[in-house]
Amino acid sequence: MSLRSPLDGCGVIEGPGGLRLRDLSLARREGVRGAGAREWLMAQGHTLPAAPNQIVANGESGWVMSLSHREFWLLQPDNQASLGRLASEEVTAGIWPLYCQHSHAWLQFAGEPGADIMAKLCGVDLSEATFPPGSVAQTQAARVSVIVAAHQSENGQPVFSIFVDQSLARYLWGAIEDAMGEWLG
User: Fold this and answer.
1) Cα(174)–Cα(149) distance, rounded to whole angstroms?
2) Strand partners, 165
């Protein structure tokens, strides 16, 4: 059995100013949740955000995103996804795996005007002045629930990571593509 992206065939959309929308749904991401998740991850050598709804770099090729005091996602955009462990398998006592690989599509939106384009879709002001680097919003974009990690840096360029339920991924991709088209004229 192999993993498939819900955005199969969408590829990459590029525009001026470094604009780029790409599908990272087959990039590795996994997570853990539970009362001792923070301590367990720190013991594993991970760098963790100071508070919920933040994201920080974790080594050279990934990030750790905190969605609460007890829920953390490990994101590795440069590594391929794996099928992971069984859903009923505890990581350690009281800490359970999260299968964000199988539930959410991962869209990456890059480029300087990214926050302005996202303003067409999202009621949260994602400008860097209001939504500083490393911030995470659990909100809506184009009327669907999303998790947006803002102003990460990849190859020196600001990027947004947008996570959406796989069943809504094509819809959101189209909405972002349409907003990009309006922005570009």
Assistant:
1) 19
2) 104
pTM (whole model) above 0.90 = yes
Give pLDDT tens digits for 20-75.
999 999 999 999 999 999 999 999 999 999 999 999 999 877 999 999 999 999 99
- Under DSSP, the state recorded for 122 is B
Q: How far is CA 43 from the centre of its chain?
A: 24
Of the candidates 136, 140, 154, the one whose C-alpha atom is nearest the C-alpha of residue 27 is: 154
Q: 18-184, which class in CATH?
A: alpha beta
Which sequence spans correspond to the domains of the chain? 18-184
Give the count of beta carbons closer than 10 Å to the beta carbon of residue 68.
12
Tally Cβ neighbours within 10 Å of residue 178.
Answer: 13
The answer to whether residues 18 and 159 touch, using CB atoms and an 8 Å cutoff, is no
Q: How far apart are CA 51 and CA 67, in angstroms?
A: 9
Residues in the chain: 185
Say if residues 141 and 175 touch (Cβ distance below 8 Å): yes
